[in-house]
Amino acid sequence: MNKALLTQMYKNKDLRNRLIVVFSILAVYSLLSHVPVPVPDTAKLHSFLLRLFQSNPLLGFANLFTGGALSNFSILLMGLGPYINASIIIQLLTQVVPQLEALKKEGEAGQQKINYYTRLLTLPLAIIQSIAMVVLARTLSQQIAGVDLIGNPNIYQWVLMCTAITGGSMLLMWLGEIVTDRGIGNGISILILAGIVSNLPTQLAQQFSLAQADSTKIFSLAFFAIVAAAVVLFVVLLNEGQRNIPISYARRIAGDSRYGGVDTHLPIRLITAGVIPIIFALAFLSLPGFLGQIFANAKTVWLAQGATWLKTVFQPNHTVYTVTYFLLVVGFTYFYTAVVFKPDEIAEDLQKQGGFIPGIRPGKETSRYLKKIITRLTLFGSVALGLLAIFPFILQGVLKSSSVLSIGGTGLLIIVAVIIETLKKIESKALMATYEQY
User: Fold this and answer.
1) Which of 38-42, 63-67, 187-191 has the weakest average pLDDT?
2) I need a surface site. Which of 31, 144, 327, 390 has the fewest CB within 10 A?
3) How many structural domains comprise the chain?
4) CA angle 84-85-88, nearest 5°?
5) Do 248 and 191 sit in the same domain of this protein?
6) Using an 8 Å Cβ cutoff, are 392 and 400 in contact?
């Protein structure tokens, strides 16, 4: 983004207002993340959860994506989890339910209807998850602290707590949609980014404090900084990688005028799905560990044993967790690419506009060619994305250091990808505002 575009962004009222909306929503998000759920003793519960998340890598990993709302037992403790889960379910149903598939083909109006169904599904999921979160907090406090820090609530207190948590999740979804509609960029991605970034200063300060107290840790801190820089560079290259398919348009004559005869290209990104597979995979991975915590003390023997196994193997430092994470990222990359990239529709549109790929017949041959290209690109991109996602766990196993989880990997991937995407949209808005002057 050059200086001229920054100047234009500042001078243009619409762009300025959009940026104000984004920063205002982020400020509201930061405030809401410190609004506690009504419990008898908020301070004791917060102190207990903070110690628990610092000692448990899985919970600390989940706390990273809520901006500390989990450890604060805030009304935003579920983050955007219910909305993300609802989006996954609706997108899966779109592939198998003819009515939803027909809606998707209706363009903007159909997409608005699908978004409406996603919001409706988010509500029951948020209610179920809010009840589960309160049960989990009670179970953990009884197992570890030996006391129910929720305070043995009656039915009215249950309703109050679950309503507050559900309302916080729905409010966060609404704030994300405001950013998407009236701000710049994808609101959901920006709020996830804000949650991660809000914890980074504290984590970096802790690492510097440890380095000051122990001079031997300075070298490891410098090594992590170099690794983080290398990961950022790799993410940028991976995010920006694309293959340009040459497209030619046949020359047409209408009266005395000639049309077409233009050579251009069709860009196909290496990772068409962007950062969505990571978010989807994390949403799925949180379920087994959560169920393990809930049913660990079940009276049924086989259920308690199964829950203990889930709780053990779905820790970020376990091989099963790492392998499952990798496979989910690869699978969701293929799935989401199939959702957003439609070779048949692209081939049909090219044929209608008189465009063709040199050496490839229009129509079905073009569609098959595009499918082959996107399959090859997605294979490499999904594997690279999966390896990047599990890289912190591999590094942790090699170096025997848990600090890797809180500094790099998935957090850096989401940060870089969302920042690049948002900057591109800001640049395109600024360019459009420049063109409108002439």
Assistant:
1) 63-67
2) 31
3) 2
4) 90
5) no
6) no
- Greatest mean pLDDT range, 28-32, 171-175, 203-207, 345-349: 171-175
Question: Which residue in 186, 158, 160 sits closest to 84, CA to CA?
Answer: 186
The overall average pLDDT reported for the chain is: 78
Burial 170-185 (b: 16+ CB within 10 A, else e): bebbebbebbbeebbb
Residues 327 and 353 in one domain: yes
Confidence of residue 407 (pLDDT cuts 50, 70, 90): very low
Are 341 and 372 in contact, with CB atoms under 8 Å apart?
Answer: no
- Residue 247's SS3 state is strand
Residue 132 shares a structural domain with residue 170: yes
- Residue 258 tokens read as 């000639």
Predicted model pTM: 0.74
Nearest Cα neighbor of 192 from 289, 320, 87, 344 is 87
User: Do 389 and 279 meet the contact criterion of CB atoms below 8 Å apart?
Assistant: no
Residues 265 and 362 placed together within one structural domain of the fold = yes
Residue 58 domain-assigned? yes
Reported as a single tens digit per residue, the pLDDT across 327-376 is 999 998 988 888 788 888 888 888 887 788 888 888 888 889 999 999 99
What pLDDT sits at residue 210?
66
Alpha-carbon gap, residue 14 to 20, rounded angstroms: 10
Q: What is the CATH number of the domain that holds 257?
A: 1.10.3370.10
Same domain, yes or no, for 184 and 274?
no
What gap in Å lies between CA 395 and CA 389, rounded to an integer?
11
Provide the 3-class DSSP secondary structure of residue 18: helix
Task: Examine the domain organization and report whether 35 and 179 are in the same domain.
Answer: yes
pLDDT tens per residue across span 160-196:
889 998 998 899 999 988 988 888 888 888 888 887 7
